[in-house]
Amino acid sequence: MAKAKSKWTCQNCGYDSRGYLGKCPDCGSWGSIVEEKTESSKNKTKLITQDIEESKPLLLSEISVDESIRYTTGMDEFDRVLGGGLVKGSLVLIGGEPGIGKSTILMQSCSNLSNSNLKVCYVSAEESAQQIKLRAERLNINSNNLYILAETSLEDIANKIKNLKTDLIIIDSIQAVHSNNITSSSGSVSQVRECCNSLMNLAKLTGTTIIIVGHVTKDGVIAGPKVLEHMVDTVLYFEGERYKSYRILRTVKNRYGSTNDIGVFNMENEGLVEVKNPSALFLSERSASTTPGSVIIPTMEGSRSLLVEVQALVGPTFYPSPRRVANGIEYNRLLQILAVLEKRVGLNLSKQDVYVNAVGGIDIQEPSADLGIAIAVATCFRDVMVDPETAIIGEIGLSGEIRSVRQLENRVSEAAKLGFKNLIVPKTNLPLKNEPNNINIKPVSRLIEAITSSISKKPI
Hints:
The protein is α/β, with parallel strands linked by helices. The protein folds into 3 domains: 5-43; 67-275, 3-Layer(aba) Sandwich (Rossmann fold); 281-454, 2-Layer Sandwich (Ribosomal Protein S5, domain 2). 24% of the residues lie in helices and 26% in strands. It has 11 helices and 23 strands. Helix 5 links the parallel strand 9 (168-172) and strand 10 (209-214). Helix 9 packs across helix 11. The longest helix has 18 residues, at 189-206. The chain is globular, with a radius of gyration of 26 Å. The model has no long low-confidence stretch (mean pLDDT 85).
C-alpha cells in the first residue's frame, strides 16, 4: 500500500503549502489552512469519464448548432437569468443561504423539464429519497421522468446513472459529495475541486446539463476555492431577507448570456411563484402621501429596468463624528454624494447623521442612482417633499454636473408603465428615439437645478 502524503490547503482560496501556516499568504485569512491527505496515483479509482468517447478536433465549418440547444425550465424568471434557458452540456452553480429556496426552485424546474419529456435525475447528498418525496408532495410535483438518487460518492453516482442517459442532473450539494480519489473529507478544497472538475468533464463529453448546489460562507460567498466559480459556465446567487417572502436570483457569471441579470420570486405555500412585475412589488408598500427624503429611482439590473424607492433620513448628530449609514448602496458612493452636496449646493451636513436605505433589500450598484440619492438627502435636510409622481435618473460628477446614463429609454418606458408623470433625466441623454406621450421629461445639467425641479409644489 502506498504511503499517504500530506499537504496543507487553504479552505478559502485553495492555496497549497508544504507545512502549516497561521495566515494564508494568498487570501490573508487566518486559521484556514488545514492538512489534507493525498495518495499515490496508483491507488486512484477509475475516473467517471473513462468510459466516454473522447472528443476529436473539428473544423469550425463542420460544427452544427442544434436549434434546441437550450432547455426552458418553465419558469420565465429562471430562464431570464440563465440567458434564455439551460444550455446543453453546461455546468451551472447555484448558491445561497440555507433555507433560501435553492432546492425548491430546482425541484420545480425538474418537474417542468421532466413533464417536457426530458429525463432528469435529482441527486441528493444531504437528504434521503423519502425526504425528497415529502418535498415533492408539498410542491405538488408528480412526474414519471424524474429520478431521485440519494448518494454521496461521485463514482457511485456516475455508475448508477450511466444507463439512464439523462438530459439534466442536479447535484445537491457539491460540498456533500466526495470522490474516492481524494482521501480528505467531504467539503474540503481538494474534494470540491476534484468533484467539480469530474462533473465538468462529464457535462462536456456527454452533453448532459448539470446543476450543482453550493453552500455559502458567513460572508455570503460560495464556500470552497474561488477556482470553483471559474470552472463552471454559469454562477447564480439566490438572495433574500429572512423576514421577507420574496427572493432574488442573480447572475454573477454567464458564458451564454448577460451577467448581473436578476429574477424575482415570491415564496408561498406551494413553492416559489414568479413575480412578473418586480417594480410594482418594490413599490407596493409605498405610501400615497410621501414624506421628505423619499425618491423613486429607475435602476437597471442586467437588461431589466426596476423602479426602486430610496429613502433618506437626516438629523442632528449626538456623536463626536456624524454617522453615515448606507443600506443597498455603496458606502463610499454615499460619502462622495454628501461631499458634492456640501461643496456645490451649500448644505451643511458636517453635523448631521445621514441614513440612506434602498427599500426592498435590493442592492443598487450603478452610478445612475446618484442623483436620486442626492435629492433624497437634500429634501429630507430641507424638510420638503419630492413630487410623488416624479422619478429621477442621473450620475453626479464631482463638480456638480449631471452625467448621462445607459439604457435611458428602458427606464423611461418602465416609469411610464407604472404611471409616473414626470422624469428628471440628464440633459446629455436627449433627445430620445422613442419618447412616451404620457410622461413629461425634464432635462437637467446641474445638481442644484435637479433639486429645484424635483420639489413638489403641493404642501407637505
